[in-house]
Specification:
The structure is a homodimer of 427-residue chains. Chain A has 13 helices and 13 strands. Chain A is an alpha/beta fold and 427 residues long. The longest helix of chain A has 30 residues.
Chain lengths: 427, 427
């Protein structure tokens, strides 16, 4: 029970008046603040400005193997980019394709090809089933769910704990239903909880025995090196899949979107050798190749894993005070009142605040009225439907720290106000 | 009748021996020459090296509207890129989306979305029909045909003349068959004939009355500014479609692949405002945006249409001697014998040589044995099947001029040898 629930009615009414005044005062400031998207701040982007200098008109534009990076060719990416990003993803040189600027687009692409043509080992294209389904651990990434809904794939919610998704439930579901063709996940510093899958979770995922023999785990390792407070070891799922005799079950995705420049980075796809060969063949139908000049730029700037990790430490130093600020406000303003809860992330781009049930929509709407934009309520769930109406994804990276403080002040007042108003409305 | 056909048998046998010796001499040189793909030469790529200097760590990275090109956003492209490339494509600012590095991939994308979801005005997704068909003017671009075949769309050959595809045939086909959902074309300096559609062709295309109300012309204007000998005016098909009351019937594609760097260029999609709005909405499901840094680079380097045209003149100066060389050999070695024919292109990347019927495969195979790689026989036709076995696409841009001369010498000997051998085999 939170503090307000225990409060005598008279006092609660006073509290309401006080909070309403505070809320009106915030509204009168006509704020324009945004904590809705996982965008790096301008300071973070400044870290990567030297990438614009590593390849100019005087530079060598040839890849290690002599390929002219200015011309067509090298469908799976230049070899030095494969070397760096295969190490990043923990896979072999023949287990990676280096892509264009967006891993999300390639996830869409993979699902599209599966729908229209099937994956390696499919009896028929997935679109030839009356209905196929994907498992969606919740809360999760709204853009995964949008792609899935857009392509007409039914989504099944599975809860997520601090160790990862509910594996009992997933094991049961996939074993029984051959129309469950895949699952989404963000295994490290997850979007939006910030949790990392435990070794047991990864092992159980790798050992799944799906009824659909062409089941695929869409493993979006978007934040593999995006530490805020401390690194957490993530077991290598491709290795585990191989051990389990399921080498082809996982599609891994990654990118430099939040290492260098979102939109001007490099994405990659990692999977078993067989999956890569199969995908390369399909890919050769749709494109001649990706931007090799930008791959070369990335390799020259990021150099090796040590340099990349140092670069990510600089990101962490910029991002950490922002997370500290959000946590400070939650800890000082809401937690003492027993109002909701949150999970402290070790890394990634988000923090999830769980409101008292039934309050997320209301809080987000009131914030919006006060000029503070949060991710839409329900965005963390398939079809935009959070059954408990309690998940709020907070994205602290983009705003300047002073703006973030103002946004969090407003957020805390709004949250209290919303809860108190609900209590009074129930009277 | 060609010279060899009129030759007395004895003399033909002598000719055969002479040509065989010449062919063996060529083979003994162990050449490694390639006239197979439409790739710019290294000299051409050198023209665009300054694009690597226009945006460095000291540069302004903001778009005209203030958007930070290093971050997420601007799904349809930055405004200055839209301005330049909408002028290039002859459309309005709200009739263009500036994309990533490959227009081909976006053509694939458009067809995929049509298959899975339908286009604006579709009753149902195209994949829900037992079979849909596309009209393919022949000879055409092999990668268009690969995409179409890959996605299970049936292809119907329509012959191409110097004015464009056979419009009588197309008008009749689309009026009768509602499963004909689209057609491919390269309207200017076409791949591989090098012809440009006449005003009448464009008007008749714009005035098509397809039984399928969601019919789309996939209009790949890849060589809009790629003059070799002289520019040819191409009527604006979007304007004509609007006049005809068919504003949504055309999807136009273009790119800087052969203006700056293939693979590291910028592509664009132009269509009616309604098609753009519809496509933007679908696109928002699959990606957050394309590489805006590279868009900015392109605008700063290409500046405006005048500068772009000057840049293309420099390309022409490099490309022209190569086409001259091919034409010289065809004119001097094959035409006087009445062996086959060719169409002289005004621009583009290719030249088509028509062998005497039934000889393309043989010539290409013999060339390959002699170390001269040509585009595969049949590549100019759907399913790789050239019914007359006579089309050979010559791509002169990539090899150095001396290499090209050696390749053409070999090609002419091989062609004569192949024809003479066939004649003798018939005896």
């Amino acid at each position: 029970m939170n503090t307000y629930e225990k409060m005598p009615l008279e006092q609660l009414r006073d509290e309401y008046t006080k909070l309403k005044n505070e809320y009106e005062a915030i509204k009168s400031k006509k704020l324009s603040l945004n904590m809705s998207r996982g965008k790096p701040s301008s300071e973070q982007l400044d870290l990567s400005m030297p990438i614009l200098d590593v390849l100019d008109s005087k530079s060598n534009y040839k890849a290690e193997n002599g390929a002219d990076c200015r011309n067509y060719g090298e469908l799976t990416g230049i070899v030095e980019a494969k070397k760096l990003f295969s190490e990043y993803m923990g896979v072999g040189l023949d287990e990676i394709i280096v892509l264009g600027n967006a891993s999300l687009n390639f996830m869409y692409d993979c699902l599209v090809r599966a729908m229209l043509l099937g994956v390696l080992g499919s009896e028929k294209p997935w679109s030839k089933y009356p209905k196929i389904k994907f498992i969606c651990p919740v809360p999760g990434y709204d853009r995964h769910f949008s792609i899935t809904e857009f392509l007409g794939v039914e989504m099944i919610n599975v809860p997520t704990y601090e160790t990862g998704p509910d594996m009992d439930m997933i094991e049961k579901l996939v074993a029984e239903d051959e129309t469950i063709k895949g699952m989404w996940c963000v295994p490290k510093f997850s979007n939006p909880l910030g949790i990392t899958f435990s070794d047991e979770t990864i092992k159980r995922m790798a050992n799944l025995k799906p009824k659909a023999t062409d089941f695929r785990i869409f493993y979006d390792n978007a934040y593999a090196s995006h530490i805020i407070y401390k690194d957490v070891e993530l077991l290598n799922i491709l290795d585990e899949c191989k051990k389990a005799g399921n080498p082809n079950m996982v599609y891994m995705f990654g990118s430099t979107s939040k290492i260098t420049f979102p939109g001007a980075g490099v994405a990659f796809f990692a999977a078993s050798k067989e999956n890569i060969a199969f995908t390369e063949k399909q890919l050769s139908m749709q494109t001649i190749g990706h931007d090799k000049i930008n791959m070369l730029r990335h390799v020259r700037f990021l150099k090796d894993m040590d340099t990349l990790k140092e670069h990510m430490q600089k990101h962490a130093e910029i991002v950490r005070p922002r997370f500290d600020m959000v946590i400070k406000y939650l800890e000082e303003e809401l937690c003492p009142l027993g109002l909701g809860s949150y999970v402290k992330p070790d890394g990634g781009y988000f923090l999830t605040y769980l409101t008292p049930p039934g309050h997320a929509k209301k809080i987000i709407a009131l914030c919006k009225e006060a000029g503070v934009v949060m991710t839409d309520a329900g965005a963390t769930h398939p079809y935009g439907k959070d059954p408990d109406d309690c998940y709020i994804r907070i994205a602290p990276t983009f705003p300047a720290i002073e703006e973030l403080e103002n946004a969090m002040k407003a957020f805390c007042v709004v949250t209290k106000f919303a809860v108190v108003e609900s209590l009074l409305n129930k009277q």
